[in-house]
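Hi R.,

Here's the chain you asked about this morning:
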Amino acid sequence: MLKVGVLGAGHLGKIHLRLLNQSEKYELVGFYDAFEENANKVAAEFGYKKFDSIAELIAAVDVVDIVTPTMQHFDCAKQVIEAGKHIFIEKPISNTVAEADEIIALANKYNVKGQVGHVERFNPAFTAVKDKIKNPMFIETHRLAEFNPRGTDVPVVLDLMIHDIDAILSVVKSKVKSVNASGVAVISDSPDISNARIEFENGCVANITSSRISMKNMRKSRFFQKDAYISVDYLDKVCEIVRMQDAPEVPGDFDMILQNAEGVKKQIYFDNPHVDANNAILDELETFADAINNNTTPIVTLEDGTEALRVAYQIIDCMNARK
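And the predicted structure, written out as tokens:
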């Protein structure tokens, strides 16, 4: 079993601690949190070992799970990598693209593995259809959340939209050609609602909307490709595939047939793939353990996390230019 330690014991850090403690692929050694009052409370309540410094924790483990505020990601990752330990780092990978690029360079230099916590890649509704998403040409996503003061220190693009940016980049096998975006700061100092249009070199267009001031929660994506439409509901964990195929010469009584202006008839097929229940956070952590043990490429690489961050900042720059 890989010995693992956690940096950061806030809301998400406590979830990681609990899951790592349950995992059969890790031995949870302990955690470090810079806020001593919170660290003492977590240690007392859950019984996890509290380390007095980052260096002490790094020395005791094989893998470090970084769940600190984003501003601290780079400094923590640098210390971990230079000690020759593997890193799991929550999204976004770092505060700037330059920092992310340096994390990649350090990981290559010290020959350690890294994975970024883009958890929606492990959402069962997405994994159930990902292999069916082939050459999408239009993508539309809505990620809406009710207001929560936690996370409002960063733009909604880095807080919420980056999940969809990463998922889109994972299925569109083409480089980004252009980005257009607008956003509005309603409650926070940074935008609370944003819409972005990403155009890819292969002609695909992605229209992404994110809001943290919605009246209801929604996390849906729709992928349109030749002869098929695929929908993913990340929140309710359901998905649907609607396909168009040539209609049979003699349709059945209940077949749904469409005929275009040229007289071509198509039959519509509906498919609701089975979605296996899972814990996406546990899955992302355990697949990273598999990558380390088997010396394979992590599912969400440091490069993936960096590209998602790069596009996110293109969107933010575009919004800032409109001010």
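The chain has a mean pLDDT of 93.

Let me know if you need anything else.
M.
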